[in-house]
Amino acid sequence: MSETSGQVVAVAADDAHRFSKPTRDSVTLVAGLGIAGDAHAGATVQHLAPMARHPERQNVRQVHLIHEELFEHTAARGHSVNPGDLGENITTRGLDLLAMGRGTRLEFGSGAIVELTGLRNPCAQINGFSPGLMKELIYVDERGDTVRLVGVMSVVINGGEVRAGDGIRVIVPDVHEPLLPV
Predict the structure, then answer these.
(1) 135 in a structural domain
(2) Would the pTM count as exceeding 0.70?
(3) How far apart are the C-alpha atoms of 67 and 64, rounded to whole Å?
């Protein structure tokens, strides 16, 4: 099943390992690697802490996506967050990214495709960006479940250019496997 239901709000990339990423007019997705010129692009893990421990592991965190609706949630709690501020590469609108299953594919206007691999596991640097923000983005709910709101991670299946305003087509896998932290 697939449908066009979302839109790209912004794209961001940075060639250095900094917390926030500057927004760009467009980014180029490269199959199996990530975003051309981004510090997290590569076939093997590129995030600094995991890279130090297991540099040979497959990079399942090539492209980070966050839903724009999260910014309204954080603003209501006194935190100003804009596209790229939390290190995401693609900011979306109109998609419930967190409810999608592992293996869900998102196709962008140019035909570029990413496949969701898991939930972003947030780090303490979030509080350095805005004190107290971490507790708004990861917490234990009334049922005792850990809630992570900091977006999803993905790998690039098909390369191409992605820019603000692109439509997003969701391609749902046959079997729904929940997203787990990666």
Answers:
(1) no
(2) yes
(3) 10
pLDDT tens digits along 128-150:
999 999 999 999 999 999 999 99
Beta strands in the chain (DSSP E): 2-12, 23-24, 26-30, 34-35, 63-67, 90-93, 101-102, 105-108, 113-119, 138-140, 146-148, 152-158, 160-163, 167-171, 177-178
Band of pLDDT at residue 5, cut at 50, 70 and 90 = confident
Q: For residue 125, tell me if it sits in a domain.
A: no
Q: 35 is in which domain, residue-wise?
A: 2-119+153-177
SS3 99: helix
Rounded to an integer, what distance in angstroms lies between the CA atom of residue 21 and that of residue 84? Answer: 5
CATH number of residue 19's parent domain: 2.40.33.20
Q: Residue 126: inside a domain, yes or no?
A: no
| Paired residues of 107 in beta bridges | 113, 169
pLDDT computed for residue 48 by the predictor: 65
Flag whether 24 is in a domain. Answer: yes
Domains in the chain, number: 1
Confidence of residue 2 (pLDDT cuts 50, 70, 90): low
Strands 177-178 and 101-102: antiparallel
Is it the case that residue 1 has pLDDT exceeding 90? Answer: no
